[in-house]
Automatic annotation (TrEMBL):
Chain ranges of the Roadblock/LAMTOR2 domain: 2-93
Organism: Streptomyces vietnamensis
Entry protein name: Dynein regulation protein LC7
SUPFAM superfamilies, per the entry: Roadblock/LC7 domain
Length: 129
């Protein structure tokens, strides 16, 4: 999957890191990101999507699901988008990024590969002895 995520780097200037992750915070793909950094981003995203889901559940007409979370910070932007059942796409970009273009290209990428980015819940396959 890493090579597909690399497309985002070429389409949107100032993108720093692209990470695909499971809802429980495990990295399942990365582009332009060292493995330790990708793991740290994925773990942090697990907490962010959990908090976003708690807020989404406060809307009585919704089902509690979230589609996108964006954070503007000193130095850049962070975007987290639902990318398939149990999977998310996270992008960190410099402050010069065109945030509208980034969101559009993320949505296009998710539409294109979302069915490949499924991460079903893990089951405990170990047995007590």
């Amino acid at each position: 999957m890493d090579w597909i995520l690399t497309d985002l780097l070429g389409e949107v200037p100032y993108v720093r890191h692209v990470v695909a992750l499971s809802s429980d915070g495990l990295c399942i793909g990365q582009a332009n990101t060292a493995p330790d950094t990708a793991d740290a981003i994925a773990a942090a995203c697990s907490g962010i999507q959990s908090l976003a889901r708690a807020i989404a559940q406060m809307f009585p007409e919704g089902d509690g699901s979230t589609h996108m979370v964006g954070i503007e910070a000193d130095g850049g932007y962070f975007s987290l988008m639902a990318a398939g059942p149990g999977a998310y796409l996270a992008v960190l970009a410099d402050q010069e990024v065109d945030a509208g273009l980034l969101g559009s290209r993320m949505r296009t990428l998710v539409t294109r590969i979302g069915h490949y980015m499924t991460s079903p819940p893990r089951e405990d396959v170990g047995q007590a002895m």
